């Protein structure tokens, strides 16, 4: 114990770790502090005395026995404490890529629908690369819905659930025309922004209409290295985004590159069609337009762009927080281009992946993890 008992120092092979007495107390894993069924806290952490101290700390193997100045005593697993305190790996489980991706992440629809291991593999590829191409999707308008139901609820929007993406007269959105689409993320004017895009190809016989994909995290980190001033600007300035039609008014804002608390890229935005930059001071606007141009040249350039054309019965699942997607223009004289699109949120997708990983790991091994030696 150090600082008159307000801190506990643990020594372990990875280095010393200093823990606050208050932090240890509010995490006490006993029935008086945490509900045994839900794991949720029963005490109000704000009611703990700010001068709380440890009066005793004893280590026996992996068991750390603690007594506090408020009279509370508890035994905890030292290895569990260490695991909780380890800093997460940067971009854990992700592989950044450019346009020359040697092999596309692939999944089979029927296998993912029927087999948990195949579904987990599909979700882990989605986490790793930000997208996965799925083959064997049933050839009807709601063909992808059964697999969506294996993961989480379909996110409904003002366009309904699963909606058509095809050229129509009097289009209410540029996606419903034959023009090419610049690299973009979907719906930055919503709050929350949809997490994953599911794009199912029913017909793609038109001339053109190839899909483009860009790893936005890879491009953003490249910009950070090569032009840190532009990167900083795009994390600081928050343009607005707007979608208006006869029945809907949607507006939101956010930076083109959004960082998490550790300074890692957590989300990218780009939507030339819907962006509305406010009338900021001239110096800020000039700085922003230059930074935005530098970023656009990256995400629209050949080095970062992957080109592919979906065939009927294939679909893409894309991370809308990480990937930019677009398409080339197409001509209907050569045939029909008909896609169906839906959204699934990030929380249900991540939950399904993590639970499947735990369940399959438990099936493969009932052995507990190796515990680390810790000295107090």
TrEMBL record:
Q: Which cofactor does it need?
A: Fe(2+); L-ascorbate
Q: Which SUPFAM superfamilies match?
A: Clavaminate synthase-like
Coiled-coil region(s): none
Q: Which residues form the signal peptide?
A: none
Write the protein's name: TauD/TfdA family dioxygenase
The record's family statement is: Belongs to the gamma-BBH/TMLD family.
Q: Which domain of life is it from?
A: Bacteria
Q: Which InterPro entries match?
A: AlphaKG_dependent_hydroxylases (IPR050411), GBBH-like_N_sf (IPR038492), TauD-like_sf (IPR042098), TauD/TfdA-like (IPR003819)
Q: Which GO terms describe its molecular function?
A: dioxygenase activity
Residue ranges of domain TauD/TfdA-like in the record: 106-343
Q: Which UniProt keywords apply?
A: Dioxygenase, Iron, Metal-binding, Oxidoreductase
Give the taxonomic lineage as stored in the record: Bacteria, Pseudomonadati, Pseudomonadota, Gammaproteobacteria, Oceanospirillales
